[in-house]
Specification:
By secondary structure, the protein is an alpha+beta fold. The chain has one domain: Peptide Methionine Sulfoxide Reductase, Chain A, CATH 3.30.1060.10. 35% of the residues lie in helices and 18% in strands. It has nine helices and eight strands. Strands 7-6-1-3-2-8 form a six-stranded mixed beta sheet. β4 and β5 form a beta hairpin. The two termini are 30 Å apart. 40% of the residues are buried. About 7% of the residues have low confidence.
Length: 228
């Protein structure tokens, strides 16, 4: 099987270790700049923060999110398959397409959750055990306003020194998002006992519940529920 599955056995040995767990959450301030109110309907955010299983899981438990779909962004449609993206040569990053109701949650709040509990934005081309450009931290913006908010927030967090190292998140305009294979969707919910999920991703959902209680939904919004 592919590399991510090959390292699962290693987690079986590490799972009982006291240091086991995802990257620690970081308490950070909300963005000083926010996206202005838009018209009725859902808006879209595209975020990449390592393995899409965990990022999707976090936002599926986030109130105001109508759907969170794992997929690929940063490359072409021709190379948007897991096998090709895993090579690290396609330009794609494992990403999550988040459709949200701006009346219930703002773009800035989504970014705050992304930077605080969904991943470590100071790790370059990696998250946890996964390495390669396909696991980079990235924000793919869908408007000029999103780009301004994201860039201002990164500058704000760096200036406040909330992390020990500078943020390496790349911000660029979205050229295309391509949903991942069906077996990647809802992975955290469907496989909570899988060692990779238990070790790396479930702690992120717990951190969401602790640090963003007002934005937490116990019941996840699953792709299979939205599509049915």
């Amino acid at each position: 099987m592919l590399r991510r599955y090959a390292i699962v056995s290693a987690f079986l040995a590490l799972a009982a270790a006291p240091s086991a767990g995802a990257e620690p959450a970081v308490v950070i301030p909300p963005p000083a700049a926010e996206e202005s109110a838009q018209g009725a309907g859902l808006e879209t955010a595209i975020l990449a923060g390592g393995c899409f299983w965990g990022v999707q899981g976090v936002f599926q438990h986030t109130a105001g999110v109508a759907s969170a779909v794992s997929g690929y962004a940063g490359g072409s449609k021709m190379t948007a398959t897991y096998e090709q993206v895993s090579s690290g040569t396609t330009g794609h990053a494992e990403s999550v397409q988040i459709k949200y109701d701006p009346k219930k949650i703002s773009y800035g709040k989504i970014l705050q959750i992304f930077f605080s509990v969904a991943h470590d934005p100071t790790q370059l081309n990696r998250q946890g055990p996964d390495t390669g450009t396909q696991y980079r931290s990235a924000i793919f913006t869908t408007s000029d306003e999103q780009k301004k908010v994201a860039e201002a927030y990164v500058g704000q967090l760096d200036a406040a020194h909330v992390y020990r190292k500078p943020i390496v998140t790349k911000i660029s305009s979205l050229e295309g998002f391509f949903p991942a294979e069906a077996y990647h969707q809802d992975y955290l919910t469907l496989h909570p006992n899988q060692p990779y999920i238990a070790y790396n991703d479930l702690p992120k959902v717990e951190n969401l519940k602790k640090l963003f209680a007002e934005n937490y939904n116990e019941k996840p919004t699953l792709v299979r529920s939205v599509s049915n």
